[in-house]
Each structure stands twice: as structure tokens, then as C-alpha cells.
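so the lab meeting is tmrw and i was supposed to have these ready like two days ago... anyway. pasting both below. for each one the top line is the aa sequence and the line under it is the C-alpha cells. i havent really looked at them closely yet so no promises
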Amino acid sequence: MNWQCAGLQKKNKDMQLTYTKRLYFLLAFTILIKILVGALLELGNDEVYYYTYALQPDWNHFDHPPMVGVLIRFFSLNLHWLSGLSLRLGAILSCAVATVFIFKTGKLISSEKMGWYAALIYNCSVYTGIIAGLFILPDSPQMPFWTAALYLMSRIIIKEEDTKTWVWLLLGLVIGLATLSKVHGLYLWAGFGLFILLQRPKWLLNWRLYLAVLITICAIIPIYYWNVQNNFITYRFHSERVTHHSVDFGSFIQEIVGEFAYQNPVIYILLIVGVIFLIKNRTIFPSTLLVWLLSMGVPMLLLFWGVSLFNPTLPHWSGPAFIPFFFIAARYCELKRGNAILPVFIKIAGGLVLFILVFGTAFIRLAPFNIGSQKAENFGEYCPTLDLSGWNDFGKTFTELAKADVASGNMRPNSKILINKWFPGGHLEFYVSRQCGLPVIAVGKLEDVHKFAWLNKDRKSLQLGENAYTIVPSNLPLDVQKIYGNYFRTIDTPGVIDQLRSNAVVRRFYIYRLKNCIKVPDPILP
């Protein structure tokens, strides 16, 4: 009997080591793939915009808290190594860290096998694995803190560590850091608070809980401090996005369809299958654990569904709400998929993600056509591939053009590049201004230029008599005379630079020379 027990223990230990080794392989494989893709694709609209957070660090920014800028600063070696890969490296490694926390939480809930399945699901989800796990967005630094918070909560609940002060303090800290990444990190306390009210009301007498909340509050003081200085512009801006009162079923349907795509259609179906299995077999989780998982996901999901009934939303806003359901789906795989290392759902979902990455990268780099408008007045509009290609080559060509303009006397040295929106402002800042040395200056409304209003404060404004360029990509048409005509004596007929892919024109850049400033634009103030 002792021999059998010893053999069983050795077998279990071998299995644990096997799943841990598989986790390491998963991390290495996903990091390598993402590094390749991150190096091959240029930065998208949002990514180059968040570069400005690193370019001008602050306690908070117009749209979001500062953590994404901090992440960019760190992995770009304080902006000394700037490339698509360096900006994305923080997102890639943050996804790896989050995967470890997902694995550890699944292991704590049931077993390493369940942790393995949860880790696979996390990486096969388009939101957690790609949107937040490859592209550099505020969600990227938030995910390791979000998943760490779930892991610490699971320790408090499952291992009954509610009397361990360090666990509570660390929980308060990671929730604070999640909120410094994106303000809806505060939902972690809302969901956990609901669980406490329903299942652990005695914890309301635990002083450690309040100390943890205090640590979170201290961590997010920079957000409050910045908003006091800037008339709470962040919340005035976001509140205007979600204060419509008429029902819009189209927006709601768009949110649901977007979530279906962002979570990976196969993973979304797996989550539904897992929930149905849970309904039929409620004993697969202890009731306390089940209430916790549902508290951490369902209210947040319902909140964004409710918002989408009245306002346009973006599907990634609700992305973290699906993470608790990953554990439900992982539990289903653990109980129903036998000893399969890669269940069928995971194989299909992972294959779909790999296909999207490989095919998408090849298409963006090589397709001899765009999939947007073919009309001359907005050539390429609605083609998302143009956000991720062509900018680096354009920056090089424009730099030579600007030098030639100065040499010929057609433009004065140190002319400004004017923008009236944050896109393509971000691309012009990262790919053009850095190469040619001409500063980007925003002219227009705060709600259009966002962070560039603060960058303006650190840059010499447009002066009377000066010249400037404005660059209009054909996929982002603009009436230059209407926007800038009042500020300059003359606006020359634009020059044209074609973006080529596989020797075919997929977009045109129109270069306008604005000459002799006769009126200085008003400052853009919050």
C-alpha cells in the first residue's frame, strides 16, 4: 500500500512538473511569435498615440492614467530604443506575466491541469492574448495587475488567508496599479466587495480590508491630483461619451458582436458551453468560489451592456469581465476533456489566432490593394491595414522632401507640422517628426487633439510670418482650406507621395505647404 501511495505521489508530481513545463513552453512560444509580429508590423493609431504618454510623462493624461506611458518608457530604454517592437515589448511580457497568474489561480481553484487550460484560453482570447497582449494599450499593463488581484483574492478565499496582512496589502497595491493603468481597475474592489457582502460579511470587521482599500486610494492620488489641476477634464470627456438617453439597439448589437470577435469566436462559444455545463452541474465549484467568480464578471458585463443600449461602446471595455469565465471554461475542459493536452476547442481557437497573425501580417505588408474606399476623394478610407503600414517609408520620403524645400527656398527652416486630430497626429509624431526634426503642433478642439494640447505647451507655438506643413493621408480626408485657411496667406497646391505595397498604390499622402502665418491659433485649453 505504501509503495502504491508513493508511486501515486510520484506520478502526481511528474504530472505537475509536466504542466509547469508546458506553461514555460507556452510562454516561450507566444513571446517568440509576438516578437516576430511586433517587429514586422508598424504601430497602429492608438499605439502611436500612447507613445505621446511616454514622450511627455505626467501624473495622468487626457484619456487614461499614466501606466502605459511608463511601460513604454521602461522597455524603450527611456526612449533611446524606439521601434514598433520596443513599444510593444512591454505588452508582450505583461501578457506572459498575466498568464502565470492565470495558471496559478486555476491551480489553486482545482489543479495544475485546470490552470493549464485557463492559461491556454487566456492566450487564445483575442482581447487578452493579442489586443492587450501584443499591441501597446492601457489594457496591456493593466492585465498583469488584474490577474494578480484575482490570484490574491483566490488565496484569501480558498486558502483562508484573510488574516494574513501582507496578502491584503498586496491586493490593495495591485488594484491601485491596475487603476493607474485604466480607471475601471476600481471594479476589482466593486466585484470583490459584492462577494464579501454576499458570502463573507464578517470581513467587513477586518481592519486589513480597509487598509488595503486605503493603499489603493493612495496609489491613485496622481489621477486625482492631475484632474484637479485640469478641471477634471478626463471625467468630463468620458461622461460626455456615455450620457445619451435614447435607446440604441444597434449599439447594443455592435457591442455583443464585438465581444464575440474580440474574445475569439471559438473561445466565446467555449465560455458559453462552460456556463451551460456549470448550470447543469453546479457542484463543480464550491458555492463560495462560484459566487466570487460571478461577482468578478457578471456585474461588469451587465454594466457595459447597459451602457451600450444608450451609447456607442468599444468591445474591449468589457474585456476583463470575461476573465472569470475563463476559469469556468477551464473547469469544463478539466472534467470533460479527459487527459487531452489541447482540447478541440483550444486547437481550433489557437489555430484561428495563429492564422490571423500570419495571414494578417502578410496581408498588411504585401497586399497590392487596400480593402477600403477606391474613390479618389477618400482613397483607402475604412481600410484598417493602412494604420499599420506605410508610415515609416513615408517619414523617410517626407524628410528628404522637407530638406529639398529648404534648400530651394520653397519653405523656411524649422517649419511646423500642423495637425487638427490625434490621428494621424500620433503617426506623424512617431514616424515623421522624429525623422525630419520638425515639431508637431495641434490646432483645433481639445476633444479632437487630446494629449497634443499638452504637448503644445512644451513646444514653440506657430508665429506670425512662419510657414507650416500639413499632411493629409487619402484615407483620412480633410478640407485644409476650411481648417487652416484663416491662419495663412497662401496654401499651395499639395504635393503627392504614394504608398506602395507590392508595387501597387494603396494610399496617397497629400503634402500641403502653408505659407506666411497671418493669425496665431488660439491656445487649446482644458
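ok protien two:
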Amino acid sequence: MIRGKNLSGEIAVARAIKECGIDHFFYVTGGMLISPSIEKEGIKMVLCRNEKAACNMADGYSRVTGKPSVCYAQHGAAAAILASMLYEPMYAHSPVVAFTGSVPTLLRDLWQYQDCPEMPYFEATCKFNADVTDLSRIGEYLRAAIQIAVSGCPGPTHVNMHLDMASDVAKMQEVRGDKTFFKVPPFRPRAEPGKVHDAANLLISAERPVIICGSGVHLSGAYNEVKELAELISAPVATNYKGKGSFPEEHPLSIGVMGVYGREVTNQIIREADLVFFISVRPDSHTTEEFTAPEPDSCKIIQLDIDPVVIGRKYRADVALIGDCKVVLNDLLETLKTMIRKPVLKSTRLQEIAKEYLRYENLISPMMASEDIPIKPQRMIKEVEKSLKSEDIVVSDTGQMLCWTTRLMKVKKAGMTYIPCGGTLGSSFALAIGVSFGAKEGQRVLNLIGDGGILYNISELETAKRCKDMHVPFVALVNNNSSLGQTRPPFENWALKGDFKINHADFTELNYAKIAEAFGCYGVRVERPSEIAEAINGAFDSGKPAIVDVVTDKREYAPIGLVRRTKKEVFPGVPSY
């Protein structure tokens, strides 16, 4: 953008976001006519079928690439819908920039069509929320929104301008993009050396340390540092579900995913720790199984996070390390190496943990080998694992599917190859399509979703098909039990045998493979467990976006969390494991 040049708002927006490193724009047409100018700048335009999906796709693209992206909606109800879905990138610390267009300022409060005060909608889910009332400053506001989105703890931002500004002309200040902000993280702050030394002393003196990794390990790319630290001090490594994949789950020190959706054996190992090292984890009740793993004040705590607001909310930190986890862990490793000459061996404890872990594997192995029809979801996960290549990306929906994947599916090598949604049912479908736009050549994207979630955004199959040359192969596997499985157990009558309908949870049986075919996509229905892996690979090889519809047992419930361990009268038929 040339300093002092007269430009329309449409052109100013296009040039500003291009200059600031945006290469994908997810949108629903309406309101301001800005898309032609953005397309002329070489930015890839993805027209979506609804505003929620546009946000999800931008989120998926940003999560897998670390780059900022933009999603757009017009004013009124569309802006409100977009704002509601920004919960997902907020949860994932994803640098999504939401852009909206409101009614002209001179027509505010005159009952203009679709006029409503959009700005408050974005306060709860955005790091930065700006209403541009001076056209000449639109470029600087967009630049600020993009830079803020990727900085510190990344997260969504929002810029709103007004419809008349798209065609209006103003003298613009030049916008210069800074490549520092083209990807997360732009900066890597270090913790104080004294704090690093204190953390090293605690780690060396601990007899039963446990490392817990969160999504910041992915954002920082600190995979090697976590592995080296664990091996140096012989500490088992757990993750929350956002951090799954930050440590290879076939490594001898891996103890899997903790928390409400995690493994009971993992939670128990954490309860027995004398030191817990939270690495880029927000230790909420879900992550810590209702604050029981660990219990507050039951052990020493080291907490590392780039965001100081996270420190000490529920767990008092004996040592707080504020900074980027990659550089802080590097500093910690250097300090530890001056204090110990060879890796610390805690063979007795690790042998005990290995025995506990083996008992768990022996417990779930028969479930994952089940030949039952309808198919058991545990067996479905085993067949999914068989079909995957190491570089493939799995995107999981919430609810029971999130529990099955975090608990039973192993990520074999560290990296961003497992992406969960944050609790918005059905959002993973469009999220996975967005991931497929950002994935590398040679990767494939598999969305694991239930029939309770798939219909939220199934219209985006058309988007995936229309844009198939812009993304890597994409397949959705539907765990089809014709039910909202996570809400069903309290209504169960365990005395009844066989299949029966629960009005509060069960749906009409649908064939999602045929629905996919109606979209001109590939669909296959699976009713036998031995056919799942072949169906998945056939779907990937079809050259089309695809749905694999797996018919599963609606009375097989995920063993989610503390409530099922402590309230047997509520869930008498659901074991905790």
C-alpha cells in the first residue's frame, strides 16, 4: 500500500491482509462486496455454506499451519453466529481474525435491515475487538488484529467496518507487513535464570515427578525438548487432550491422556506424584479430573506458560516459569546438565508404572478386538489406527468420540497429527476441512465424529467437493449409533435387553454414506468391524471427499471421568477404565 494514496475500503482491506501474511480467507458472501479485490491479491478464497463453518475452517487451517487466517460474515445475525463459534479458536489458542461489516454509521439506530449492536458479541471470545469508524485507519486496525492474534498466547481477534466503507475512498497510510507475525510464535520470551535454576532443583530432588504437556508444546514446537527432559530425569509424561501428540505415545515414558476424558491409570499415576510439571497446560477441572489429579497442595508444582494469567489459578506454583516453552525448556535442560552427569534412573518406580500400564492395556485389548455386531467403538478405534499413516491428521469431535480417541488411539510420533474440537458438537467436521486446506502434500485428514455431530455442518461436504483441488484428501468417519451417546446413560434401563428407544437421546436411523453420495461425494457404509480399515483407505483413494458410515452399538458408553468411578448407582453398566 502506497503512503497517502486514495483507496477504496475494499482495496485497502485486500492489500492490508495480503501485506500481513494472510493467504486463506474463509467466508459467506453478503454485506460488503470485498471478495473480488481479495481474490485479485492472490489470496485463496473459500466460500462456505454458513458462518460457523467459515470460522471452523479458518481455525483448522491456522491450527495445523500456525499461520493467521481470516473468516468473514456480514452484519446482524451472521455476525452473531460467527462470534459464537469463535469459542473454538479461543479454546485452541488459534490465530483466527474475524472480520465483519456493519450497517453505515449514519444509519445506526434507524431500524436499518439487520441492524444490531454486533460488537458486544465478540468481547467474550476475542483478544482484540475493534469497530473501525474512520476508513483511513482500516489497514492499521487489520494489521494490529493479525499481530495480536499470533502474539503471546495466540487467539482470535475481531475487526468490524461499515458497509459504506467498502466503496468509499479515503487517503490511506501505508501498511507494511512484518514477517515476524506471519506465524506462531512471533517471539520466544525467556524465563528468569533464577527461576529456571529453582525448577531444576525441584526436578532433581523429586522422587515421583510427572510431566504434563498441553497445547503450547504444539504451538512452540517443543517436542524434542520435552522428550529430552523426560529421558534426562526419567519422568513419565502425560498430556491433556489438547496436548495429545506432543509426546510420542509409544515411548516407554508415555502414560497417555489424563483428565475426565483420559485414562484412569494415568490420573492415578499423577495423584501419586510428589512433583507435577505443567508445561503449557491450563489445569482446569476437565484436565485434572475435577481437581483430583493432582489434588491442590498434594505435591510440588512447577508451572511453565507464556501467559502469566494462567499461573496459580487453582494450583499454587512453587516455581512459575513465564515464557515460550521451547526456549525455557532449552534453558532448563542446560541448567540440569550442569547439575547431573547422566540421566537419572528411577527404575523401581518406572517398573511399577509399566506394570500398571500393562494391566490397563490388557484390560482394553479384548474390547478393541471385539467381533460384536453392532460394532463396538473400541474396535472401531483399533481399525482406525490400522488404516492411518504416521503423517495423517486425525480431527476428533467432542463428547464420546473425544473420549474414545484420547483414551484408546495412540499418536505414534510427536507432532500436530491429532486435533480435538473444544466442546462445540459437530464443529470438528468443518474444522477438519479447514485442516485439509492447511495440511502438507502427502498428508490425509480423517475426521472422527458421531451422528449427533455430523448433521451440524454436513452441508460443507459441498464446499469440500467444490474446492477439492485446494486441499489434501479428506474423509469423515461417522460413529453411527443413531443416538446422542453421551447423554443417554442416565436414561438407561439396565434391566432391559437388546435395543430400545430413548426419546431424550435417540435419533432416526440414517445412512450417511448415501447422503455423501447425494452430494456427489464418496460414501461407504460399514456394519462389520473387519471392513472398517479397508473402507477408510478406499474412501481416501476415491479422489473425493468421503464419509465412512460405521454402524455401532448405542449401548456401549465411554467411561468418562470421575462421576462414573464414584457414582455407580447412576452408571451401573459403565466400568471405569
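from a quick look at the 2nd one: The radius of gyration is 25 Å. The longest strand covers residues 96-102. will dig more after coffe
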